[in-house]
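Exercise 7. Given the encoded structure of a 260-residue chain, write a plausible sequence.
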């Protein structure tokens, strides 16, 4: 078998959204595939600042973060795309004018509106659930790569989108949430870049995900795998559907393809 690179999404793929833990079976499977000479990469919408200790301690070969805006291999930063300062300020202005809620995500940290000014209870619940540590939108060092927002039924969202749609992709994360990423960057673009660097053919890449922001990565991979708990949009677009994350889905997927 040729050396494979396996790209893992985090939330809902490696990390259970029920227990908020990574199954031990997934960790042991990753270690076993690495012992056999295959490479394991995180490929996530999260920016690097929000890779928690549980992820870092596994021992991944590299990290593709922020939907392709940051790439790291063997503890070495390879690329980082930050939005220009004037564009960052414009986005904050538009969010406030349109009364929209968002977390502005950077490599070092993220930024949010002062909690009392958050418009929707749904977004407050989101902040409380994930306990995002963040600075405010008025921070002097405001600098970010992408952002995650809630539109809900806000009619001003269409105006906001029109202002930025030439520069950004708006990925529908369902239930009124959007992941907003600069055009030209995605989980797929990062996957292609690292495969070329390591001189590994795309046919020897494997991607595992569960949500709409994984679609580009899954489409580009030589082998695409969806978790059993995936968004329904993925299930007919992949080569294989494994079990839920809480039912040892990662272990079963790697075993199915004889990587362990």
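Solution.
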């Amino acid at each position: 078998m040729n050396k494979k690179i396996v790209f893992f999404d985090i939330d809902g793929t490696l990390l259970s959204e029920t227990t908020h833990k990574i199954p031990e079976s997934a960790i042991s499977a990753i270690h076993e595939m690495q012992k056999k000479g295959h490479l394991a990469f995180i490929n996530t919408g999260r920016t690097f600042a929000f890779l928690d200790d549980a992820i870092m301690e596994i021992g991944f070969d590299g990290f593709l973060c922020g939907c392709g805006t940051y790439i790291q291999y063997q503890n070495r930063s390879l690329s980082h795309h930050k939005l220009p300062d004037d564009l960052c300020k414009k986005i904050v202005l538009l969010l406030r004018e349109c009364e929209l809620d968002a977390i502005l995500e950077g490599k070092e940290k993220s930024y949010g509106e002062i909690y009392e000014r958050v418009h929707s209870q749904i977004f407050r619940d989101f902040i409380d659930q994930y306990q995002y540590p963040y600075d405010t939108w008025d921070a002097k060092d405001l600098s970010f790569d992408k952002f995650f927002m809630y539109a809900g039924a806000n009619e001003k969202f269409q105006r906001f989108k029109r202002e930025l749609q030439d520069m950004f992709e708006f990925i529908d994360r369902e239930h009124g949430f959007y992941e907003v990423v600069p055009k030209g960057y995605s989980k797929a673009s990062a996957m292609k870049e690292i495969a070329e660097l390591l001189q590994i053919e795309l046919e020897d890449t494997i991607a595992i995900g569960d949500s709409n922001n994984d679609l580009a990565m899954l489409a580009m991979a030589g082998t695409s795998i969806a978790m059993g708990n995936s968004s329904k949009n993925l299930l007919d677009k992949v080569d294989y559907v494994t079990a839920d994350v809480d039912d040892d889905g990662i272990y079963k997927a790697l075993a199915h393809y004889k990587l362990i």
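Remark. The chain has two domains: 5-80+185-256, 85-182. Students should compare their own answers with the one above.
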